[in-house]
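Fold it.
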Amino acid sequence: MTIKFNKPFFASSLLLFSTEICIAAFLTKGFIRHTFGDYLVVILMYCAIRSFIKTKPIYIALIVLIISFSIEFLQLYNLLDYLNLRDNKLAVIVLGSTFETSDLIAYSLGIITIFLIDIKTNSSWKL
């Protein structure tokens, strides 16, 4: 693992972050907000990490998946209530408020997508 700036992944991170902000700000319900946003957020996290860290893509994919699954399972145990952040709109957007198994599927599909894109476009990477 080395620290190395990667412009394409950084640009992708900025684009995905802007997209996520638009989804959070303008959509309150529906497939895009509740499922596609979760699909994109793990891709955003992967790209953000790959913007600065050079390591095998499988390591980053697993780290992002562990983080996203952990946050989702913390929702099952009402993390926002324990932290007294239920009324904090930013915390609700970032951490989520309800556990959904469909979110776990969206996270998995997002990670599989970006992982495959990464290993296909960087032929030097191997599992």
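The mean pLDDT is 92.
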